[in-house]
Specification:
mainly alpha
Amino acid sequence: MTDYPPPPPQQPYGAGPVGEVTLSQPLRGASPRDAIVRFFKKYASFEGRASRSEFWWPWGAAVVVNMAINLLLGADSTAGSIIGGIFALAILVPSLAVGARRLHDTGRSGWWQLLWLLPCIGWIALIVFWALPEKAEGDKYNVA
């Protein structure tokens, strides 16, 4: 019979991992819940860096919420348009902020988000930039 080491101590429900990452550092391998919480905690913080999971989980959640609004209220209804517009405005600033931090993690300036104004080509370029792994050049955007 093989003796295995004892399991690590369990954290209380809702507690972060041992050695939790501060808000000033990117959270690599973030869970959906952690990524969405950080998305709103760093509402208008354009400084620092964001990991891929920290960027993509809120993006996916926004798509799901938008689809739910359209399905429940109707995409063509007045209520659906109003609620959808309010939701879009509510996440506009944090979306721009996390996008800038994600670009910082790839070694680029947040101003690259202006590519969003170029239909198709700009969108594809930004999606590729956001999907790239982190680079050492992004260290210059670290917040102490």
